[in-house]
Amino acid sequence: MSLSQRQIIRIASHIRDHLLLLKRRKRLPVQGKLGNITEQMDRLQAIRRKLNLCEARTWYAVSEKVMRQIEVVLRDLPHHIQQVLETVRACDIKVPSMAEIYRELRQAEEEFGGLVYHEEGDLLAVSTEQIELQDIYLGEFEIQLRVPSLAEMRYSEIYRIFALDPHPAASNDAVTHPHVNDGQLCPGDAGASIAMALAAGRFCDFFLLVRSVLTHYNPNSPYVSLDNWHGVACYECGYVASGDDVSWCSSCEHDYCDECSSYCRRCDDCTCTSCLENCPACEEPVCPSCLTRCPDCEEPICKTCLEEMQCPCIEENEENQDEESERTPTETEEASGTNEQDGDFTAIGQAPSVAGRPAGADAA
User: Fold this and answer.
1) pTM score of the predicted model
2) What is the rounded average pLDDT of the residues 52-78?
3) What is the DSSP string of 124-178?
4) What is the distance between the alpha carbons of residues 205 and 16, in angstroms, rounded to a whole number?
5) Contact 51, 183 (CB under 8 A)
6) pLDDT, averaged across the chain
7) Domain boundaries, the chain
8) Count of CB atoms situated within 10 Å of the CB of 252
9) Is the model's pLDDT at 245 over the cut of 80?
């Protein structure tokens, strides 16, 4: 619905107020930069007094140091002067009259078939026609100009692109146009022209420049290229592939390209390589659903190997038992040999009894 003449006049006045505020804000840094120059001049005055004193008292060594101070101050002075000049030139902007702004808005209304004003957000907007680039339908877009941001000239926040009939890229819902991401336009080479049109109050030119960017495709700087518009991005590496070349991982529930996907060797479900884990028994990649833990060693193992008792800990336990069984007879023999040696030791240390008499009876 088109705006009435009274509404356009009120919006033109509102816009001019913000442009005047911008000009006042641009003047504020001038005072600070002039202060740098006056500070340097005060330093020169102080150095001049020191130099006069040195000459009056013939302090020639001190006067040499004072001369070097003068050189330092004079060397920095042109830099501060240049900063003031640049700031003053930035303030030299002509704020269009309310009549000029009104004519710009009327012209934009004729070019786009109407103007829209959103009170919530203080947005002035026009709508484009249905846009189709290289046989890919993108729909209509609304170019929204945020009026309060004109007083700040932060160009990334002044205008946004809203998709009225969104047909976003398959890999990113925020990209509704190859050059629009989350409502922000990448204007490319047109960025400087758009900024100049806004600063000069040429709002019809601003809307036309933005529309021109939307209706043309630059293959060198898209957020998502038109070649991959209907593709799907791999969750692992980000490669955008067509729907036929993308697999769905049933474990983490994400899309993966052929290079980043595989399958479980037990259930044959498609699984990404990150979700697969090699079973220590069969050494085959297994998905989390087919993986369990051994109740004895608590190590991960596939369910099939656990049912077939193929866990490495079982074989290890059997080997330990075999070693213990082989070691037990040997230990018995060693214990028996020790007893026999103890008997021999007794026989050597004490003579055997003769005819029922204890040893040593004759000696007694």
Assistant:
1) 0.58
2) 88
3) EEEE---EEETTEEEE-EEEEEEGGGGGTT-HHHHEEEEESS---BTTBTTEEET
4) 17
5) no
6) 84
7) 1-227, 240-307
8) 14
9) no
